[in-house]
Design a protein that fits this description.
- It is found in: Cell membrane.
- It is an enzyme of class 3 (hydrolase).
- It comes from Symbiodinium necroappetens.
- This is Undecaprenyl-diphosphatase.
- The structure is a single chain.
- By secondary structure, the chain is of the alpha/beta class.
- It folds into five domains: 218 residues, 3-Layer(aba) Sandwich (Rossmann fold); 65 residues, Alpha-Beta Plaits, CATH 3.30.70; 173 residues, no CATH class; 225 residues, no CATH class; 249 residues, no CATH class.
- The chain has 46 helices and 19 strands.
- β8 and β9 form a beta hairpin.
- α13 crosses α19, α23 runs antiparallel to α24 and α24 packs antiparallel against α25.
- The chain starts with a strand and ends with a helix.
Amino acid sequence: MPTDAITISGVTKRFRDKVAVNNLSLRVPTGSVCGFLGPNGAGKTTTIRMVMSIFYPDEGKIRVLDKASAIESKNLIGYLPEERGVYRKMKVGAFLRYVAKLKGVTGSHLDERINDWLERVDLPGVQNKRCEELSKGMQQKVQFLGTIIHDPDLIILDEPFSGLDPVNVRLVRGLINDMKKAGKTIIFSTHVLHQAELLCDRVFMINKGEKILDGPMEEIREQFNPRTIIAEPTALDSSHHAALGAIPGVDSVTDRNADGFALHLNEGANTDEVMAGALAVTPMRRLELQRASLEDIFVSLVDLGDSEDSVRVITIAIREFLATAATKAFIFGTLALPAIGGIMLLLNALGAFKTSDPKAEGTILVADGTDTAFVASGLEAAYSPEAIRAAREAVKEKTEEMLKNIPIGGENEKEMSAEVVANQAVPSVHIERIAPGDDFEAAKSRVKDNADDAFLLFVVSERSVEIPPTDADLDGLSDDEQSILKARGAFEIYQNQDTRPQIVENVRRQVQDLIVNERIVREGLDPARISELRRFPTVEARTLTDAGEADSQNNLAQILPFVFFMLLWISVMSGGQYLLMSTIEEKSTRVMEVLLSAISPRELLVGKIIGQGAVGLLILLIYGGMGVFAADHFNVLSLIPARLLLMALVYFFIAYAFFASLMAAAGSAVSDIREASALTSPIMMLLMLPFFLWVPITQNPEGIIAVVTSFIPPLTPFVMVLRMCQPGVEIPMWELIATTGVALLGVLIMVYAAVKIFRVGVLMYGKPPSFVGLLKWIRYDPIMEWWQAVILGLVEGVTEYLPISSTGHLILASAFLGLDGENISTSVDAFNIIIQGGAILAVLALYTSRVLQMIRGIFGRDVAGRRLAFNIIIAFFPAAVLGVMFNDFIESSLFKPVPVIIALALGGVWMIWIDHHKLKAHRDESPEEAVTEGKGIEELTARGALAIGLFQCVAMWPGTSRSMMTIAGGALVGLRPKDAAEFSFLLGLPTLGGACVYKLAKNLKESHDAGAENLFEQLGVMPTVLGIAVATVSAMLAVNTGSARSGTTASAWRWCWGR
């Protein structure tokens, strides 16, 4: 058992320009009860949160239970935050079990322990009650039990008596005394100083972030001893004041009116002698030595101033999943939607939703000025009872034929449905002819006023039968001439304002058909015969497959992209919305800080994302499973590529992780759903963007818009699903890999940005931030400024593929920029390796054809590519093995300016030697001859590749150029300078890629284990991304220079050294 449960050494915490805690040093002895006092805003809560590793100090160290941080001792710590919080809908027993499991307590004895504790706090029989059913005081006792249910060694209580009635105050005080007797270490922050006096054996006090008091209670009382005696005579007399002041040792006397006198003693006065003297003056009702209270000390001092990680993540994920998926609302909503959809399809198949034209009733006026009045005659025939009955029978027959092909419903139901469709209301329309010479204005008035039920007026003339002009006919004519020509083929329609548009449209089509038929007749042709000539039977395409011929399903193939797109979108949207609501609930009910006492913000966020992701995946599997079952039932499952089913899951996880991170970040920044709308609006706009891209992508899935948007992380899953669903479109494997990789990188960046926002937002209340405010939280207190990231990116990009050490120059540049502090050295060293990812992207961009050749070779499609890939792996192997073996030695001994300078000097000597000996034979040759002399990259043997790999191992000494050693090694094994440079650049892909992944994983793991900030949290996400981006662009420019990409190594070295 350590001597001190908590040791705080020189801790400082800043929030931008505000210093919350300043150079604070404290120790809490094991087994003590310590009061943590201070005025509002003194830094108490910030200090407690740093002790709990919710915040991290900017300077100094904190040890908890002899560990480097509370993260390593979470199961041994109980924390009750000031802001109380429980899951309102959760049952008491389930809540306590959940908190206990987060603290590592499991087993059959857990329920027994919960029942015992509930009995002790006078809450028997509430295990199955929801927390919201309890009173506020009862909820506080439940949360107090959640703090101590796992029997912690260290208990931190922030205002434990707040809101409790006197009976429960005494109960909690008794529990604290019991835990004190059991040897527990207890810290509690309180404003009830009387309770601190009763419970504490040690007190420390801070004000404005600085310690102003620290020590055992007895020593503090002695230190602040007021040296005052309270004297209350049995009978007050005016002479007592002077008599008491004359006692030896009394400095002054204060009249307390009816409460007697306060005798203030001189320094060194004997209290016993003074009290004896007071009794000699007059009999006393009360005579006692006044002791300093904590309240007096507090006021006087304040007035002096200016006024198991994976298990926890899984536990969180399970709770999130069950809290959503096990509810009646979710079950009903998830299952009801497919059920309702099936019922709607059934009803539609049975004709229940068959729409009919509205019933036309009234009088249609027809002013037919044609020679034969064929329009009026045609309309009279069309609206005769006989014509309506014939049309009804035709519709019925057609409907019955259609229903025969539907595999649902019985024969009786189908017959009834056909009857329903056919029995449409027979129009009750009267056709009234208006002579061309009659008053049209009177006819218009009748239609306007609906007089005599007139609701339509058609005006047709002989010009209506003429052929309308084309655009070519109108070219070059005046406006008047064009107006005359445009009257050809036209007729006029006047309608009542209440007439349904569908009725007008139906009659208009009938008039147009009558006019067209009249034109055909006047040309001497038979309209019926022309109609027969234009008639085609239904032609079904047949699909030829290895299994034989099959019916083509072109219509279903066109629907497939929509189905998969909507499945993906609904699943992502649902999971993100559930996560948003869950985060807001935990923050608004103040349960968030309880969770953060048992788990880090990063773990909490990841657990919530996994849990709600399982909800979204469940929705995807339910709806997708129903779709696959239906496709199999209708024999169209072959339309769905197997690769699409697999990639749909991959794209779901990518899309969900991206948008869930955004939703969780937005939820952590607000306290209720109304506040969330301003922050979620941009997210919803981003989520709706794929709908706007639907048409251009489906029309041209291999076009520039489709390809470019496939590489934009938030759009990648949706765009790729649309493209993969298109018939006959085969996405290249390299594009699938590249887009997925870019999308995963975007997800990684978004998750880390969300963690930054989440850590700040979950503990902030009040006015919610704007979207711009969230961006500021991402770069909250970054140690690395943007301009420093740009400089380091330029150094990396320019030096990586030139024969000078990029890592060595990055170390020197970091020191020059002041980024060599002890507290950030680990993160900066990791940054200097990870930023080399920009060089990887540059090679991928400039040597795409070579990379694709190697990929084809790996899959057995390119012999030369397979050989090149094999040689790259052989050359990479030595550095991979030795790098892991000697990584710690290299970091501790060689990642320093002095070893780097030594390596640079030795590298210079090596370059001069190679220049004078190996390249001496090429001095008198032209550049073209020097470039073509030697072996090509395809002729490199495995032994030569291994030799180049051994040369690369020398570059593990920072300051030694990797490209210098590998290009020189290639030259020594006989490669042409150009090919040696190309092999060096390609070898950088696995070498730098492996170093980046290894360094990143190591930094994240070690920082997590030590409870410290990782490189993204210390240096900032945006500076890291900016550095990689600058390194990518500058590396592309460096590689693309003539000396680096196509010239000799000698010319490159001379350029570097100014020779």
